[in-house]
Amino acid sequence: MSIETAKLDDYAFRLGSHELKPLMLGGMGVNISTKALALEVARLGGVGHLSDAMLPDVDDRELGTHFTAEKAKRFRTMAGLDPKPDMHFRLEDVERAARLYVEDVMKEKRGSGLVFLNCMEKLTMNDARGTLKSRLNAALDAGIDGISLSAGLHTSSFSLMEENPRFRDAYLGIVVSSVRALKIFLRRSSKTNRLPDYVVVEGPLAGGHLGFGMDDWMNFDLAQITREVVEFLKTEGLSIPVVAGGGVFTGTDGVRLIEGAGAAAVQVATRFTISRESGLPSAVKQAYFRAEADDIEVNGVSPTGYPMRMLKSSPCIAADTKPQCEAYGYMLDRGECPYLKAYREAAAEHPELKRHAIAGKTCLCFQMKSYKVYTCGATAHRLKETSVMLPDGTWYEPPAEHIMNDYLTSTNDRILLPTVPADVLAAHSIPA
Q1: What sign for the dihedral angle of Cα 237, 219, 245, 208?
Q2: 39 in any annotated domain
Q3: Residue 272 DSSP code
Q4: CATH at 144
Q5: Is 425 part of a structural domain of the chain?
Q6: What is the tally of structural domains in the chain?
Q7: pLDDT single digits (tens) 192-241
Q8: What are the pLDDT digits (tens) for 48-66?
Q9: Where are the beta strands (DSSP E) in 52-131?
Q10: Cα 50 → chain centroid
């Protein structure tokens, strides 16, 4: 079978006792990979990823809780631009937010697939170890099928879960961008006598945060890194499946990574950003459809220190939003955040101004929850190839089922366009 004629659906992703479709949805935060989106991918036999980014705020919007308002009220006396070392999330709230969210999703899970949670280590929350432990264990207690450890080396994450009854039952994986990062994780986690069940390799064409340097990300290649990770695991005698992600735009791209790089499955996200089930507002999805190649950039506005890929039109860039630490503060570390620090310095330099546009950083917590960070993969400019323009000039937002089926059944890099329902055509028609 040639790569051009092979379908992604010809392959199976074997993970423990499960045989899955070789497609994993990326865990896009904040609530872009919604409950509905993750559940749909799982129903169709793949792995649907959720994101645990800012779950207290997500719960407030989706489940009617009041974590954000209560935190803002509790710390209203700390409003201002000074460092905030004493502004802590209550760990019982962090645990409860994660548990409520995961329980709400898992009770509706159907089909043969799995639902995983993407857990970012860089979500420091002014208590990196305590909040990470609470989030991880709450997800396990709530019945999540698996957890992917991302945005950091996660050298202590296995030990933080080691006492949990589900530590050896749930699927646990690590997201890396190099063999070196994987080696560090394996070495530091070895004391738990527990290997990861899978490894996700995220290449330089992925959306959002990148695990590469600002000046050298373009020197790396997903297929090459995947081959290096597969070969390293083979040399070590470890039978751990590798999932490759970042720039996988067609099913044939996935076949190439399976046949040519040894991947067991692929992780995809960008094409699902414009799905009906995606949490992005429709106006943002339409901005993605309109994007051209030169509208996409890798910049350093994230206070995590990682480069981020996004649309240049993202409202978060050079925004003058005051730091929103009282309500959010997910990026605070020992009372400080690069954006808080930059805003404080700008205010000291120009006290005559009420607000300050910070060119180099952004208030990531507030901007992400407001969907003003238009993160996307390097292939986002091709999204218009995957759908149909409606009579009013907007683009049809296809269901996730169509996107997944296209990935699984397409050949020779073809993309099957969705059929637009008559009621959608009528709703988007131009009056005579």
Answers
A1: positive
A2: yes
A3: G
A4: 3.20.20.70
A5: no
A6: 1
A7: 999 999 999 999 999 999 999 999 999 999 999 999 999 999 999 999 99
A8: 999 999 999 999 999 999 9
A9: 114-120
A10: 8
